Amino acid sequence: MRLQLRYFASLRDAAGSESENVEHAGDAASLYALLAARHGFALPQSRVRLAVNGAFVPWSQALHEGDEVVFLPPVSGG
Amino acid sequence: MATLGARVSRFGLNAATIDVDALRRELEDPHCGAVVAFDGIVRDHHGGRAVSELRYEAYAAMAEREGQAIVDAALREFAVRRIIAEHRTGLLAIGEVAVHVGVAAAHRDAAFAACRFVIDQIKERVPIWKHEHYADGAAEWIHPD
């Protein structure tokens, strides 16, 4: 399926891009592992939260064609 | 008793200066005897390093939705009538207001509790990230454990 990824903060710096489209058949965890290896993300998956289409979702949630997927590094607002 | 206005809960991102005085006026309500406000201010140090300025980046659509969900929840869960919160994005100098939470309620206990709830929840789950710029020229994303 085709997914739209957006990157923020340290993950954007590591990816060198604000967004990319990927083809991926597996779940979000396998996608993060693949991208972490490709882009050199320093954060382990355990420190990253998953957002799909602008809402927090558990890592177990299935992804669907056209989803906007964001791996959220630990937030630091306030 | 004066006619009461509607209860209000509002969260927004602000790319310019947060106008604390204007937001304070929006909390005025004849039923409210207590106003509690929290301002988070950019400080000049973090972890022993001298900070020169900050940049806040947001996943804007989600940050606005999460922030609004937080103030809506506070309005439901606490005996308060008005909650207005704003968070900055972009480049901020030392001393600027980074985040503002204002709460009006009939009595102070609920106003303090709701204000504390809102700022804690913002820090916990609104997708905004701080990029600290240090006096020595270095810069770092802050990703708390």
SSE blueprint:
The complex is a heterodimer of chains A (78) and B (145).
Chain A: E1 2-6, H1 9-15, E2 19-23, H2 28-39, E3 49-52, E4 55-57, E5 68-72
Parallel strand pairs in A: 1-5
Antiparallel strand pairs in A: 1-2, 3-4, 3-5
Chain B: E1 8-14, H1 20-25, E2 34-41, E3 45-46, E4 49-58, H2 60-77, E5 80-88, E6 90-93, E7 97-105, H3 108-125, E8 128-134, E9 139-142
Parallel strand pairs in B: 1-5
Antiparallel strand pairs in B: 2-7, 3-4, 4-6, 4-8, 5-7, 8-9
Polypeptide structure, described:
The complex is a heterodimer of chains A (78) and B (145). By secondary structure, chain A is of the alpha+beta class. Chain A has one domain (2-72): Beta-grasp domain (Ubiquitin-like (UB roll), Roll). Helices cover 24% and strands 28% of the residues of chain A. Chain A has helices spanning 9-15, 28-39, and strands at 2-6, 19-23, 49-52, 55-57, 68-72. Chain B is an alpha+beta fold and 145 residues long. Chain B has a single domain, classed as Molybdopterin biosynthesis MoaE subunit (Aldehyde Oxidoreductase, domain 3, Alpha-Beta Complex), CATH 3.90.1170.40. Helices cover 29% and strands 41% of the residues of chain B. Chain B has helices at 20-25, 60-77, 108-125, and strands at residues 8-14, 34-41, 45-46, 49-58, 80-88, 90-93, 97-105, 128-134, 139-142. In chain B, strands 3, 4, 6, 8 and 9 form a five-stranded antiparallel β-sheet that branches. Chain B has a four-stranded mixed β-sheet with strand order 1-5-7-2. In chain B, helix 2 runs antiparallel to helix 3. Chain B is elongated and about 55 Å long. Chains A and B meet through helix 1 of A and strand 4, helix 2, helix 3 and strand 8 of B.
